[in-house]
Amino acid sequence: xxxxxxxxxxxKDLVEKYxxxxxxxxxxxxxTLLWMLKFCSCIEVLAGLDxxxxxxxxxxxxxxxxxxxxxxxxxxxxxxxxHHGSVxxxxxxxxxxxxxxxxxxxxxxxxxxxxxxxxxxxxxxAPSIVVIxxxxxxxxxxxxxxxLYRHPDHKFEWSQxxxxxxxxxxxxxxxxxxxxxxxxxxxxxxxxxGFCTQIGVFLRKYPQAGESVQxxxxxxxxxxxxxxxxx
Length: 231
Ligand code: SAM
Fold this sequence. Notes:
binds S-adenosylmethionine, 8 strands, single chain, eight-stranded mixed beta sheet, about 230 residues
């Protein structure tokens, strides 16, 4: 399957493993991953965030309940919301999530936004699991036609060592552990090059913050809610 599908499947497998109830997808683009995740029966709250409102709205209707959802209502409740905003800003609507996914997002952030990103995701949102994927620049020599970056909007592409040192420092700073993996295997004999897409799975080391702690994080709402569906 194409690489993007392998990344989505990786997230689905993670959801099946950890059974999070509340999942937020940062940089959700056209909501394809959110659409796939709505079929995971453990999930009760799904939220998407993107800085590009148009891209989010393209296939937003696929997140709406279908007639069958009304005719055969399921036991679980599911709320899906989409927000327009930046991962460089904190908004209280992003509190209380169990899993936060950032698939092919960080390489699109300007340096100043990348600096703010760990405090927003790991410090403020502080979910029990964070998954971050990004291109592995070492794999580019195997990709035909790639000159500097795989996509013109990429602000950087990191080697395995660069991603791992950033991730380990972020994990240390916010009291998470991190494990590295990826999708898109290198050819036999070239294992040192690593996966085409590198992935860090971060697990929070300290216990779940209670509801009371959330109210101790006073922040003004800055995101705009552009979609809400209740199943
Ligand atoms: N996660 C999706 C996937 O894997 O198919 C889309 C990845 S796309 C390459 C990167 C997305 O990040 C774009 O939709 C872009 O608009 C969004 N993005 C870029 N900067 C952002 C920011 N500061 N805050 C939120 N989203 C951002």
